[in-house]
User: Fold this.
Amino acid sequence: MRLPTLLLAAAFSAGAFAQSFPSKPVRMVVPFAAGGAVDTVARALGQKLGEAWKQPVLVDNRPGAGGNIAAEAVAKAPADGYTLLITTQGFAISPSLYRKLPFDATRDFAPVTQLTSSFLVLVCSPQLPAHSIRELIALTKSKPGAINYGSTGTGAPPHLLGELLKSSAGVDLVHVPYKGDAPLTQALLAGEVQVAFMPLAGVLPHIKSGRLRALGVSGKARATTMPEVPTFVEAGLPFEFTGWLGIFAPNGTPRDTALQLRRDIAREIVAPDLLERWPAWGYEPVGNSPGDFAAKVASDLAMYAKVIREAGIPPQD
Assistant:
């Protein structure tokens, strides 16, 4: 799926650019509760931008409905650059997952920049007799349906990666959904579920303490914080997953405003104090152009539609 050229052109309407932008506080809408990974990034970035702009950046947490509540709020906001959405690749999953959305992911938003790229790590309980992806596959094949995997909800990236693992390796794993990273992590630590794909930031302390075991990472390369853990491709499975955090503005945001937002954000995400924090958060800074980010979103929309269709995940209300 590709965004039509006319759609990309319409994403940033022509108009006079106010050199004083921003001349008032900027609101950054977060689709998740305070204290989570995306909220942490939003507040750190907001502080840097606020210092540069000499204007407050207000973080507005609007959790719920898989990020759709926050997205709807931004889609309906004035297209002036003062309301931004910071969200994950879940934005590209929702159109194929939900029966009906109160917004159109391609027509109602102007991609500004991809903040970061990221990966998930497959972890398991130390009680599970598997020390590698290949051992996990062999164990699962010897006990079909006896091993379960947790996720942060139907259609969330950990769920879709679990389905990719099942189809790629030809194994039978039982899906157990939880309501967020925190309860899933507790379920792993308590042995309620045996394996799960998780963001690195939330489980790295448990991996280092030995309470969880890392089997593989979903990215193109090994993690600098865990160089001993192989990628799935290295383990013989032909798939990889690169997640992202991105910034969107309402469709119709003036092009010059969007380009300034992108330039300022790209500058701040590689500032020394943020640069040293990204690895511990499980992210790598990107800061690409609006056009490049739009192409990434279009590609992901098509990819997730295929995964959801092939996994037989029913439409959600």
